[in-house]
Amino acid sequence: MRKLLLEHISEPGIETFDVYRKKGGYASVEKSLKTMTPDQVTEQVKASGLRGRGGAGFPAGMKWSFLDRKSDKPRYLVCNADESEPGTFKDRYLMEKIPHLLIEGMITSSYALGAKTSYIYIRGEYMYIVRILEKAIEEAYAAGFLGKNILGTEYSLDLYVHPGAGAYICGEETALLESLEGKRGNPRLKPPFPAIAGLYASPTVVNNVETIAAVVPIINLSGDEYAKIGLGKSTGTKLISASGHINKSGVYEIELGLPVEEFIYSDQYCGGVWKGRKLKAVVAGGSSVPILPAELILKTAKGEPRLMTYESLSDGGFISGTMLGSGGFIVMDETTSIVKNLYTFARFYHHESCGQCSPCREGTGWMEKILHRLHHGHGRKEDIDILVDVAKKIEGNTICPLGDAAAWPVASAIRHFRSEFEECVNNSMKVKELVH
Amino acid sequence: MAKVVIDGTEIEVADGITILNAARQLGGHSVPPAMCYYSTLKGSGGKCRVCLVKVAQGSAKDPRPMPKLVASCSTPVADGMVIQNLTSPEVLEARKGVVEFLLINHPLDCPICDQAGECDLQNLAYEHGVGKTRYEEERRKFEKIDIGDKIKLHMTRCILCYRCTMVANQLTDNRVHGVLNRGDASEISTYIEKAVDNDFSGNMIDVCPVGALTDKTFRFKSRVWFTKPMDAHRNCTKCSGKVVLWMKDNEVLRVSARKDQYGEVKEFICNECRYDHKSATDWTIEGPRHIDRHSVIAQNHYEKTDLLTLKKEIERQIEFQKGKPLPEPNRTLAE
Predict the structure, then answer these.
(1) Is the peptide bond before A359 cis (omega within 30 degrees of 0)?
(2) What confidence score (pLDDT) does residue B321 get?
(3) Looking at CA atoms only, how far is residue B100 from chain A in angstroms?
(4) DSSP three-state, residue B174
(5) Which domain range does residue A203 map to?
(6) Whether pLDDT at B177 is above 90
(7) Cis peptide before A191 (omega within 30 of 0)
(8) What gap in Å lies between CA A186 and CA B155, rounded to an integer?
(9) Which of B102, B137, B181 sits opposite A366 (nearest CB)?
(10) Distance of CA A377 to CAs A381, A383, A409, Å?
């Protein structure tokens, strides 16, 4: 398996500028600034077929091309390092171990977009990584890769790290921009999209850490070469944060197209379900995406093997499929209570809803309260139908995708594991009868 | 100019205005309700989600429907757009859901609430809500607080429309008022309970769609339907001086700004007019105020509480406009 991002991760001292540079670091900056125009860099990213690694999977090159280049306002590149999706920890690993890769990607991408100032917005819980990044930025300034006239060219760039206060909602790009501007992190109404009026009402691109880091190998290899890695429209490599009931949890870089079965059971990756237990369910892309039972995560409804690609994982829509999302791969063994797991997720979304729009503000709390009762043996017969209905009424009716993210796990858990919820209700009924 | 079709009726409106404002130009049943949008407050809207509509055709150039329901208060029209409000069962279903969400944490203390009788949430619930609640969990509660010496805040009743924070932001010279915390723990508050003291702060009371912000000089004085609203004016150096006096006999119980049929104030008034001139002799009284609110009671919607019946009625009228013979009208309770 080919590694593009984590190739030198085990090199001692790779977090320092000197070692990173010796291993071929900052080559993409030299190549792009000295031999390519900004548009040529954008073309390479387009040709690579790179898709956003933050969760939505939107083609990065296309996002860049939406940027309003005619505007006389300054343009900004903002890196979304507010990695808060439960089950996802790939960006933390990348920034902690190999910070210069992100900084290199930021310089190359900022050059392509014509940004003179760029920001890395990082979640407040990652304070120690802020220090790592700031040190790396200092080294890059000292080496002439940041600041005025980088490498003697006309291009200048200032890069800042901005820590948030720790809110899930600030991972939504417009809430992130509000927070970066120093306001309350509420998502904005779209349109206008950030590409037209983003940070300080100026044209802005917001990209995930991994997306920006992937620009480095794309420029080094060329877009076409990068596009050969992976499968179909899912090009390149992806960092997967594997956690849960597996033998070897951690961050793995995989080529997209790897069969899910191989990823779970191969010793090279997760090494199988722990304690010799059976696989029960998998949440494939962070807590927001629909949960799938073992038979549907290993094979699609059509009986084809499920692959780690954007397309294969979403095969069957939300009836029998899920999403690659942010790559937070949570594995659950046969002893897991789906009800309890869902309660944990619902509690998270209730806690993190910004409270701006009614369906999400009220609906997430309602779902949590019902699940709390179900899990603690106070379920009622009508609870399951109310949960399904509340999830349906939140989904699609909110300002930002947090509402969808809160509704999908509920809808899918009940779709695939309804009997477990019914059992909860039945047990509650029995207890009630015994008491009375 | 853009030609749009709202619930089967075509109308030509200015480019770039929102669907909600286009519908308001058309008037009648097709105007979506709005709990947070306020035309005179910049940046308002998009939050309550009761004005969701379906865009069945995006524009003449791109006829694809929009994938989700959109907030009509913040979505601009495009030439050739086809919008469904009451004619879309999907919209009615979603709206019913939003009304339910707005009510689950609302205390439903209308019998002791000063806003009752002129409350947007009451009207909305009457028209779009269901008679029974499915919510059996504990409702959220907050302590009542004073923000300034003239305004009482009942956070428990608040639906977080953010209108009052925009008043504080846009009409007054100090940003003294905002939202604390998040999710359903969000609360409207002043910075460390600092008093709201500003010439125009009283307008927060008028923009509040529910009974969360009430006038302390009027609280518990009278039910609003026992008062007589009178248009009146006086020469004021700070504001237009055009107000409504809410009178009982010759006593002025309350002074408020004038609201239009959508409950919106076009000319905000100053605190001096609102609080300091509570004598009828201070004012030139113009005459009784016609309250043309979008209330269900005012519009006699209760004849057709079943919205699907209403939808059929609209479709029947559309057919009629097209020159087709009018089918037998649906029998209603009034008949």
Answers:
(1) no
(2) 66
(3) 9
(4) coil
(5) 17-223
(6) no
(7) yes
(8) 20
(9) B137
(10) 12, 12, 21
Domain residue extents for chain B: 2-91, 105-220, 221-304, 307-335
Contact B182 A355 (CB under 8 A): yes
Options 3.20.20.80, 3.50.30.50, 3.40.630.30, 3.10.20.740; CATH of B2-91: 3.10.20.740
Low-confidence ranges of chain A (pLDDT < 70): none
Of chain B, the percentage scoring pLDDT greater than 70 comes to 87
Q: How far apart are CA B256 and CA B64, in angstroms?
A: 46
Strand ranges across the sheet with B228-233: B251-257, B242-248, B228-233, B284-288
Last residue of a domain, one of A223, A252, A280: A223
Q: Could you count the other beta carbons within 10 Å of the beta carbon of residue B199? A: 16
Asked if residue A257 belongs to a domain, the reply is: yes
In B, residues 54-83, which contact A (CB 8 Å cutoff)?
68-69, 71, 74, 76
Q: Residue B195: what pLDDT?
A: 66
**Contact list, B100 vs chain A (CB under 8 Å):** 393
Decide if A11 is inside a domain. Answer: no
Residue B166 reports pLDDT greater than 60: yes
Amino acid symbol at A190: K
Of A126, A61, A60, A124, nearest to A90 by C-alpha is: A126
Residues A56 and A179 in one domain: yes
- What pLDDT was estimated at residue B140? 92
**The architecture CATH gives domain B105-220:** 2-Layer Sandwich (3.30)
* CA separation for the pair A110, A45 (Å, rounded): 13
At B275-332, the pLDDT tens digits run: 999 999 999 999 998 876 555 555 555 554 566 666 776 777 677 666 665 555 444 4
Residue A317's CATH number: 3.10.20.600
Q: Provide the token pair at B148.
A: 């300034």
Size of interface A-B (CB pairs under 8 A): 96
Q: Give the end-to-end CA distance of chain B in Å, rounded to a whole number.
A: 42
Residue B334 pLDDT level (bands cut at 50, 70, 90)? very low
Alpha helix (H) residue ranges in chain B: 19-26, 89-104, 120-128, 163-170, 203-207, 271-275, 296-299, 307-321
* Residue reference for tokens 């397309």: A311
Query: What is the distance between the alpha carbons of residues B219 and B215, in angstroms, rounded to a whole number?
Result: 6
Which amino acid does the sequence have at A159? L
Report the chain B residue with the minimal C-alpha distance to residue A363. Answer: B101
Total of domains in chain A: 3
pLDDT attached to residue B33: 92
Q: List the single residue in A350, A373, A397 with the smallest CB-CB distance to B94.
A: A397
Does ipTM surpass 0.90 in this model?
Answer: yes
B66 Cβ partners below 8 Å, 6+ apart?
B54, B55, B58
- Compare all CA atoms of chain B with the CA of A396 and give the residue at the minimum distance: B68
Interface contact B160-A358, CB threshold 8 A = yes
Q: Which residues of A78-97 are buried (b: 16+ CB within 10 A; e: fewer)?
A: bbbbbbbbbbbbbbbbbbeb
**pLDDT tens per residue across span B184-196:** 999 988 765 666 7
Inter-chain residue contact A397 with B68, CB threshold 8 Å? yes
- Per-residue DSSP letters for A214-272? HHHHHHHH-HHHHHHSEETTEESEEEEEEEESBSS-EEEEEETT-BHHHHHH-TTTT-S
CA–CA gap between residue B17 and residue A293 (Å, rounded)? 47
**Cα A87 to Cα A106, A122, A288, B316, distances in angstroms:** 25, 17, 10, 54
Shortest distance between the Cα of B184 and any Cα of chain A, in A, equals: 5
Looking at chain A, how many residues does it have? 436
